Amino acid sequence: MQIPHFSECQHPLVQSLAQRTDQELLTLFQRHPLQGQYFVAIFCRYGSIVYTLIHHAVRSPVQAEYLFSMVWKHIHHELRELDISSSSCSGNVPETDVVSTFNLQTWLVSATTVCVNHAKLPPVESIHYSLAEASPPLLYYLEQALDQLSPLHRFVVLMTQTFHWNPTRIAAHLHAEGTMLSETEVRQSLIQGYQSLMSILPSDICEIYRLSDGVKM
What we know:
Oligomer: single chain
Shape: globular
Number of strands: 0
Radius of gyration: 19 Å
Strand content: under 5%
Distance between the termini: 25 Å
């Protein structure tokens, strides 16, 4: 098994956090929910461990990559609410204080194991996710941003990026559903959708993943 290379781990924003302890990264992550770099730093630190655990448990590489992304989505959600008071860390403790009793690696291994044991994986043919195209942190933040787009903008962006539909096909589908848009209007909606997506995404995520108005998913 070859561990994939995650290029975001080489970005200066992420590397600047390399000396932070797990406790510090978690505290920063929880205190700054509108920034994505702290979650990316946690992913870069422990992504290979989670990847290895999953690939030893799931035979299909396609399903393993899908589960890898789902596990990190679950991790993101759980870390937001993770109660670290048992680690003697209160809201008044400075971000630079180190609390040695907190063990993020053990927690991540446990969370991954639970996800693997309870996973109900879809058939390979129905999975459209590729780890090479979007690592889990990018996928998570893109999904969060897409959920905030208007239904039309979300539709044209997803059909273009995920299924590679062109404006002609999108317009024809919309016509069949009762939404009368020309190909030109579809192109305009796509541009507007990209612009809205970029305005919603955390600025540090855009920087780390070098996203522009033509963001690829």
